[in-house]
Design a protein that fits this description.
glycoprotein; Sema domain-containing protein; Semap_dom_sf; three-stranded antiparallel beta sheet; 3 strands; mainly beta
């Protein structure tokens, strides 16, 4: 197995990210940030109307 660490996204085994079929949809969220607090992953997501989801 490949270890998933800080340099995982730059590895050549997971490039390029793409597919053979187009994915379409409606944008629900426009902003996202996350961090670890006391061992928990906390994410805040913002909508295009200005609402904040946690």
């Amino acid at each position: 197995p490949v270890p998933i660490d800080d340099s995982f996204c730059g590895l050549d085994i997971n490039q390029p990210l793409g597919g053979s079929q187009l994915v379409t949809g409606h944008t629900l969220y426009t902003e996202m940030t996350s961090y670890v607090y006391n061992g928990y992953c906390v994410a805040f997501v913002g909508t295009k109307s200005g609402r904040l989801k946690k």
